[in-house]
From TrEMBL:
PANTHER family: DELTA(5) FATTY ACID DESATURASE C-RELATED, FATTY ACID DESATURASE 2. This is Fatty acid desaturase family protein. Keywords: Membrane, Transmembrane, Transmembrane helix. The keyword Transmembrane helix applies. InterPro entries: FA_desaturase_dom, Fatty_acid_desaturase. The lineage of its organism: Bacteria, Pseudomonadati, Pseudomonadota, Alphaproteobacteria, Sphingomonadales. The keyword Mitochondrion does not apply. It comes from Sphingomonas tabacisoli. The chain crosses the membrane at residues 57-86, 106-125, 155-177, 227-253. Residues 73-335 form the Fatty acid desaturase domain.
Length: 364
């Protein structure tokens, strides 16, 4: 959902040489293109097994959290629920890139089990995330998923993370209140579509109304999410769903949103000032956290630990990114720019981005 927090995006006076001036590395792009052809086929068995297991464990842990007889067990089950549901929800990223004919029914299954119950149906990402991968849009004001966070005031980083905690409340308002009311007001409907129908971080982004097949899918998903949100509110208001259970559900959903926002914070270096960048420059502004680090498998699941590589190979399914990474490491020269986007873990990345914000953003 679009944030309503507006950030000061003016670059600092002593910002480094813009990455847009970095020339494309021919050897890197050629090797990546060859791997795209070799590893671009999705494996339906991997997708369904991984997704269904994640969703099943997540919901089972959610129920266990609600029924837990002690705080200790509730916290333990809650952590499992957050991690598993976060992994299941992260498949929305794959939905935006896959050829749906290769994994039949996956979009419908994901929306039925995760998208609608979590109130993040896939239309909120499909048709939006692909703009982030457009060569002329990445890092510009037209990119829905980019802000020069490393060049902003230091307070924007904690605000960027904490605002995500309000996402579940915002989504209930979006689907239980604004969606029905927008049917009565064309002006409100226009605002809902433009400002509150995308999982974006750029407050200046305005979404266009869908057309054709995309509009039909949007309508079905929005109706389902709206009915679920209204039913959820009604169940709580009538006491059918205990308030304690509802608050636990909201808390876990909030934790999932915060975890994803932390992952988003370290997915890029956020150093571009708004100008178009070369593909290599876009890669260097993005982040890989490859093995041997283990924790990225939890906070950057479903291939998101290879986010920089994904910008080189957007059509490669998540289960092949690790193989592609190892192949590139083996064939590229050690001096290749490819290795400059690989980092060790979350603490170092947060320190790097935070330090950049403190040293450059604070001087505005």
């Amino acid at each position: 959902m679009t944030t309503t927090l507006t950030f000061d995006a003016t670059p600092a006076a002593d910002a480094p040489t813009p990455k847009r001036r970095i020339a494309d590395d021919t050897a890197l792009l050629k090797a990546a293109a060859e791997l795209t052809r070799e590893y671009s086929t999705a494996n339906p068995r991997i997708y369904w097994t991984d997704f269904l297991a994640s969703a099943g464990i997540g919901y089972a842990a959610l129920v266990a959290t609600i029924l837990a007889g002690s705080v200790g067990w509730a916290i333990a089950f809650g952590v499992v629920a957050v991690l598993a549901l976060y992994r299941a929800e992260s498949f929305i990223h794959e939905l935006t890139h896959m050829k749906h004919s290769t994994v039949p029914g996956f979009r419908a299954g994901w929306n039925a089990l995760i998208g609608v119950p979590m109130m993040v149906p896939s239309f909120m990402y499909e048709g939006v995330h692909n703009l982030h991968h457009a060569r002329t849009r990445y890092g510009t004001v037209d990119d829905p998923e980019y802000l020069p966070l490393a060049l902003m005031k230091p307070w924007t980083l904690p605000a960027f993370i904490l605002i995500a905690a309000l996402a579940p409340i915002g989504l209930i308002i979006r689907y239980a209140v604004l969606a029905p009311l927008s049917l009565l007001s064309p002006k409100l409907r226009e605002a809902v579509v433009a400002r509150y129908s995308g999982l974006v971080i750029n407050p200046e982004f305005r979404r266009r109304s869908p057309e054709g097949e995309a509009k039909a899918l949007w309508t079905k998903q929005e109706i389902a999410a709206s009915l679920w949100a209204i039913a959820l509110v009604a169940l709580v208001a009538t006491g059918v769903l205990p308030l304690r259970a509802f608050l636990i559900m909201m808390g876990i959903a909030s934790a999932v949103a915060v975890l994803n926002q932390v992952r988003t914070l370290v997915a890029h270096l956020w150093e571009n000032e708004g100008e178009p960048m070369t593909v290599t420059a876009q890669y260097l502004d993005s982040v890989n956290v490859p093995p041997p680090a283990l924790l990225p498998g939890l906070w950057a699941p479903v291939g998101l630990r290879y986010h920089a590589l994904h910008h080189l190979l957007p059509s490669v399914p998540y289960h092949n990114l690790g193989i592609a990474h190892r192949r590139l490491c083996a064939v590229l020269d050690p001096a290749s720019p490819y290795f400059k986007a690989n980092y060790k873990g979350l603490p170092g990345l947060m320190w790097k981005i935070g330090l950049s914000s403190i040293t450059r953003g604070a001087k505005r």
